[in-house]
Amino acid sequence: MASSSIHQDINVAQIAADIVCEFLEVAFHQILYIRQVYPAGIFQRRKKYNIPVQMSCHPDVTRYLQDTLQTIRPLVGRGEVDKVVLNVTDRQARPLERFVFEVTPPVQPSVNDDSYLLRLEQALRAFVLKINVCDSMLDTLPQDVTFSVHVYTQDSAAASLEQQQLVQNFPWVEADSDSLKMPNARIIPLKTMTSNVIKMQLYVEEGDKTGR
Amino acid sequence: MSRPRRRRGSEDGWGGEGMRGYMAAKKRKLDEQFETDAPNQVQKEGTRSNIFNGVVIYVNGWTDPPADELRRLMQVHGGRYDVYPSRSHTTHVIASNLPDRKIKDIKDKKVVQPQWITDSIKAGCLLSHVPYMLYRRDHAQGSLNFRSLTRTSTTVINDDEASMDEDSDGDPDGVRPIDGVRPTDGVRPIPTGSPGNSLHGDDSLLTSVTSSDDNASLTHNKSSFKRSEKEASSSFHGDDTHAPSNYGNSTRGDGTSSLTSQAQNLSKPVVTSPSGKKPMGSSKDANFVAEFYDNSRLHHLSTWRTDFQAYVNVLQGKGDNGFPGRQRLCDHLQSRPEATTDDNIISFPETDRFTPESKTQQLGKVVMHLDMDCFFVSVGLRNHPELRGKPVAVTHSKGKGHEQRIRPGMDPGYERAYWEKRPPHRHSVKHVTDNTEDNATGGNHPRDTYMSFSEIASCSYEARKAGVKNGMFMGPALKLCPDLKTIPYDFEGYKEVAQQMYDILASYTHEIEAVSCDEAFVDVTDILTDTGATPDDLASVLRQEIFEKTHCPASVGLASSILLARMATKKAKPNGQFYLPPEDVLDFVSPQMVRELPGVGRSLESRLKVIGVATCGDLQKVPLPTLQKEFGPKTGQALHRSCRGQDDRQLKVERERKSVSAEINYGIRFTKDTEAETFMYNLAEEVQRRLQKAGLKGKTVTVKVMARKADAPVEPSKFMGHGICDSLSKSSTLGLATDDPKVIGKEAWNVLSQMKLPPSDLRGLGIQMTRLVSASGASSSSASNKSIMDFVKAKPATTMQQSITNNVVHSSGNIPETEVGGSVVNKKTMLDFLKPSTITEHIRKETSLDGTLGTSDIDVSETQGSTAKKTPKRGGLPPLPNLPTFKTPKAGVPVLGRINEGASSSHEDLYLPSPSQVDPSVLAALPTDIRQQIEQTYASRNLPLRYDAEEDTEACNNEKPTGIDQSFLDALPPDLRKEIEEEQLQKVASEITMSNRTKGKEPSKPGSHQLPTYNDVAAAVCTTEDRGHSLLVHANDGRDCNSLVDRETHNMLQSPEPVAGPSHEGRTKKRSDSGPIVALPDLNKIDPTCLDALPPELQQELKRAYAQQQKQQPVQQQQQRPNQPQDALKLLGQSKGRPSPPKAKRKYTRRKPLNNSPSKRKGTAASPGKKRLSPQKLTWNQTRDNVATTSTTEPAETPVAPAGEPAPVEAAVSTCDTPEQVQQVNLCGRVELTEVKDLLKEWTHTCPVPEEEDVEQFVQYLHQLILDRNLETVDLLIKYIKRLSNELKTSAWGSAVEEIINSVQGVMEQLYGSKLKVT
Description:
- Chain A is of the alpha+beta class and 212 residues long.
- In chain A, 34% of the residues lie in helices and 27% in strands.
- Chain A has five helices and seven strands; from the N terminus they run H-H-E-E-H-E-E-H-E-H-E-E.
- A five-stranded antiparallel β-sheet of chain A has the order 5-3-4-7-6.
- In chain A, a hairpin with a 4-residue loop joins strand 3 (81-90) and strand 4 (95-104).
- The radius of gyration of chain B is 46 Å and the shape is elongated.
- In chain B, strand 3 (92-94), helix 3 (100-105) and strand 4 form a beta-alpha-beta unit.
- Chain B contains 56 helices and 21 strands.
- In chain B, helix 10 (298-318) packs parallel to helix 18 and helix 34 packs antiparallel against helix 35 (856-863).
- The chains are: A alpha+beta (212), B alpha/beta (1319).
- The A-B interface holds A 82-83, 102, 104-108, 113-114, 119-120, 122-123, 126, 137, 150, 152-156, 174-175, 177, 180, 182, 184-196, 199, 201, 203, 205-206 and B 1027-1032, 1034, 1039-1040, 1043-1044, 1047, 1123-1124, 1203-1206, 1208, 1210-1211, 1213-1218, 1269-1275, 1308, 1312-1317.
């Protein structure tokens, strides 16, 4: 295959990790905006994937997201991340909505069929757009909410995360079960994409907000 | 004032010393103020005296009169006043009341009540401060019984102290003959006749001393090293010229034996001395260390200083109950007021006698330095009066020397070259010059090989005149002084004499600083004030008394400071006394060599020599700035002062022990590591003996190693000596202070092995313990070692007590196992143990023990007796899995702490772990008695503990139809249990519905209702674990499963498996191997996630087993996607041996039944109630059905490999999927969402009643989508079909859709833990 030889030296997994983390950052900001976790005032409109997206310009929020993704990037590269969850919680850290990004490494990672990643970009764009409309599928959140990012990974990966701390002073802790349990949760699938670079789906676990 | 950090640069304006510089400047300024202010005060007062000359006070706390007043008084009366306490300057601390902490801080100072000053002023003279002492020193170290000073146990403080003995004996003066022979122990007295006939005596003497000297010289190797240096250099060079005379001299012994080597002598059968039994004791010998110290007695000498210091401390602690010596002195003065008692008194004529009052003012402080004259010799001569007046040396050698036999590996030439290269020693300067001549003349004379490596410990002044020096080797000494007689060591005598000397001193005063066994500084100011005697009177009386009691001469120097007193003694020697009046200091000091000054060693001496300074007079001419520039501010200052005789050091009456060590550099020859290891442990025992004797524990273990220099000969010239070595040391700090020999030994061995030295190169090993704390008082160490548990765990004392009682009751059987010999410190009785306070104490220890690695059993062994010892362990260590280590405490205990660490950090229950923490297999493996004990303890606390759960797991599995061992469940934490129960209920429910539903179709197999519960439970656990802990089991990742199950056993579960992961698999495997039909669980009992977690080969095996079980049933091959949790049945389906490609559907075969056989659908239309399917079941049936209906399977398309292609059903939106992919999730070949939708539309529109098969197929498709992580499509399709069915408004479709949704929700629940939101 002549075309494959061109990309042989490219580490697809690494590219995929970069793309995923980049996308997650965009998506997280977008979710925070859409779900009104933070007031719209702290967001700026930027362009990504050729569509307008909202990005928080609050330094702490931005920093947190950046650090989070920075630390999990190697894990994503090794395919050790199972899910990345944006956990929207109330003040008592009880989860209200969980935006679950299931990331699976494709079976045959290659970029041959999408050399310029155009289709990938389309897919990601579709993701973002879907996030933009997820509001309509979800119940409104209470006023006072916050969020956290969870990563589902293996024990060994978690250990390596601790060992090779890329970002100083940004340690990961094991999530306590309270922040994971949502009674009567319903899953709202949002988006799925499959490519030879990334295989990813996004769904929202929505807790029973009325019960609270 | 904390010690400030030294800063670089001088930008801070204090000479680059930062805070220190500032403080120094401040002190200086305060001093100046004091000085300048003094005349004013004097003027104001109108009087002036010099009462307090030399007294420097520091006022601590509130006093009456206040500090200001005291300061004024001191100004007026000639004293000094320190605003900041100084260790070296301050003489007295004035205080009315001191807290204990401050007392400890300033314990080496005299703490005096302010009345001392006022009373002194009233009396017009300096009164003795003793009655005014604020406290006695009875809080000091415990008493030291000299009688118990045995040969075997000694304490070494600092090795280099030994050199002081030698130095003090090294003064070239005569010795006085003394009468009186005392038999020595262990050594035969030398016959008093002519030396020539004393062969036998010489031999025994030689042997007995040889080993001891060797050993001892090695013990304090620094001094011996130094000595051997100079010895060697002189001996090698002096050989040629002096050899003949040596041979002539050897007639004194026996002509034939004169040439025999020491070694031969040592091994001679004639030898009768105690050390002769095993003269060549090898270091490999287990008893080597003990024997070494049994035989080596010279090392006592270095330790005696400590003992005498301790003795002095004890005396001081007792307070002054009158000093009989002072009375004697007064009597003496009255009887012979004018006489000088000794002709040897050198006294300056202008020294007038004063009346007591005026004299103290004149004299000020007077320090006496008392030194026995060539101590070893004079003590030895008590037994050999015939040798008085002759040159005598104390050594182990007979003095004949020997022809050097070259042992294999020896290279005398190398060593000689080495010694020559060393800088010349001050004693050997002369010899070096001699030697150059020798070399020129003698060349390579055969006598070159003559040498004796026995050192002269001390020699008489007669011998010194001949040029013999202390520390010389015997060979060269004999050359210098052919008449040199040798006498053996007399350790008992030394001890006795030293003791007497100190007793005498103590009868005068307690202001004694013990320097060594024969040397002491005494502050005699008080005595002189009290008795009104002159220094000379005192000295002569004292010397007389010493001589009478010990028959040994002593020299005394008196001066105003330690430095000058020492110099004065030099002048007084031999057997004299010298008082240096303050006004003659400069004259006296000027001719002294700089070498005599404190702090001036060889290197500083040579540096001084470079700038042309040899004597103190020279040094006085060097200005201070020059000195400071040359040698640094401090050294320069010190030199500047000391060369003028200024020395404000105070007597150090009390010193704290800094280290305890044991070191052996003799006879170390190892061949294997294990030998070295054993040796370390033996040495550690010696250290322990010493620590215990001193009542201390050490925290830092320093290993000192002498390793053969890389190019040094394998065998040194000295028999079994260490030769030329590199000295290395390395230390390691333990978590807790200890005196446990095992801990010390282990640590020492660790350190040693880290050095990676070949065992054969080891020549000397030593263990030193530093950072000492008192063994008895946890108080002294408690501040640093306090554990948090102290504060937290005070309350549960009652439960502790209970558990401890239980343990104690049962522990008797195991006592011998846990007993660690030797440590008897603080043995506690059982009763002690039951007191809550002690319990908490032990807990504290226990917990801190957990936290600190490596030292776990120290505390226990030390603070508790044998019985008590194991109790807190049992009780205190949370994780019972570690219990087996009790069986081997000797070997395993230090590791214990490590093992426990993780678990113990989180224990809520201090004494017993929660039952779920108990690994049943471990428990089961325990000896019965221990197990009973644990059970009973648990029982007493109403906690269920099922150690036997595991044993019976297998049986239970087959017996209990419910599938889960109830006991196992009980042992689970409540939340987990609940979850499993739910799981189980669900399963049972689904099983029932399934069996109802499939009654007609599928005859239930005999095995299907037998529930081998292990898999169920494990599966349940897997899923709960999955949910609860954010862990996801990846298919085919056995490792993952291991860690998962591992965790569960470790953290929360009483798992039925002792070693969870592997044996989990192993168990399953075993089952499938042994009897697949009988033991196989029903298919839908298997949790897919669990199955997925198994390694591929195991999966294969299981599948095969199932295939066997159901081989008559045709099954359609399902594709396998290893990377995702998958329905177990699909995996299993693959193994059925029928390669049935998933592509079957691509043939669109399914469409025909859909479209063309409505009758079929009708027939199978079932009641909705019955259609509530368990997902697995549905899948199962679906697959069968599919295969049955698809006859056009293509064998070519074989089942996909485990790492096969993904099977994405790509939603229409996601355009980047690859259309050419063959194994996509499809519905009858439809992959794209729109296609599928079309199909569904067609289906619903064509069929008024959905056929069950079709429904199943659709559900199957949805399941695949879910597994393919394509929830979006699932969602869309469900919504779509719902909409379609709503359009149709038929109950059949409605129920069908409901069934579909239920099924999907079931799968969702299983995989994601929640259901889809279907509106």
